[in-house]
Design a protein that fits this description.
Elements (H helix, E strand, L loop, with lengths): L2 E4 L5 E6 L9 E5 L9 H15 L3 E5 L5 H8 L4 E5 L3 H14 L5 E4 L3 H7 L5 E6 L8 H7 L3 E12 L11 E7 L3 E7 L2
Parallel strand pairs: 4-5, 4-7, 5-6, 7-8
Antiparallel strand pairs: 1-2, 2-3, 8-10, 9-10
Helix pairs in contact: 1-2
Length: 192
């Protein structure tokens, strides 16, 4: 379900629902307009049905976080911690508002910085699951490729990209699944 309202920034926002888990059914905000492209509930639901068994006690990175819906859905379903990277000031402000609304601050870390810059400064970090949902008009595939260095062995990276695009090649991982949902596609990469 998607509805609209105003948030604390005074800007019009869309409402998205967390699908399942301890925050299931609760709403988060998404900026209205082209600032972010929140993943539809259908695609998000499918994604989390596929990876649900891997979420418990996982350490998650939500790169290009936007609303934070992927990291927050992960926390709702049992992840230990979510790190969010979002370079846009307004999107980051709404992301922090969403974390606060859900009471997920103790399990979240937010960085307002470009993904590539953050990766360069955090090569000592490692994650069980990485979500890469870059803007569809700028997929930043070289940055997405750098994310692989932060995956634990046997870790999973999920890339969201336009559904009619060619399957992106990423070095250092193998494709374990690929799903298409019309205007959106998801590819699942595993680090061996």
């Amino acid at each position: 379900m998607v509805s609209s309202s105003n948030n604390v920034t005074g800007k019009k926002t869309l409402k998205l629902n967390i699908i399942s888990g301890k925050f299931g059914g609760r709403s988060i905000n998404a900026p209205d307009g082209k600032l972010t492209h929140p993943m539809s509930s259908r695609v998000r639901g499918s994604l989390f049905n596929i990876i649900n068994d891997e979420l418990l006690r996982s350490n998650v990175l939500d790169a290009f976080a936007g609303t934070g819906s992927l990291g927050l859905e992960s926390l709702s379903r049992g992840a230990n911690h979510a790190t969010f990277i979002e370079r846009d000031r307004l999107a980051k402000k709404i992301l922090v508002e969403n974390i606060t609304t859900l009471g997920a601050g103790d399990f979240s870390t937010v960085f307002q910085i470009g993904a590539k810059t953050w990766i360069d400064k955090n090569q000592d970090k490692s994650f069980d699951i990485i979500f890469a949902d870059p803007p569809y008009n700028d997929l930043q595939l070289s940055t997405v490729s750098y994310l692989v260095s932060l995956l634990k062995t046997n870790g999973l990276m999920v890339l969201s990209y336009p559904g009619r695009s060619e399957l992106p090649t990423v070095q250092g991982v193998v494709v374990v699944d690929n799903r298409s949902y019309g205007t959106a596609a998801l590819t699942f990469y595993r680090k061996k």
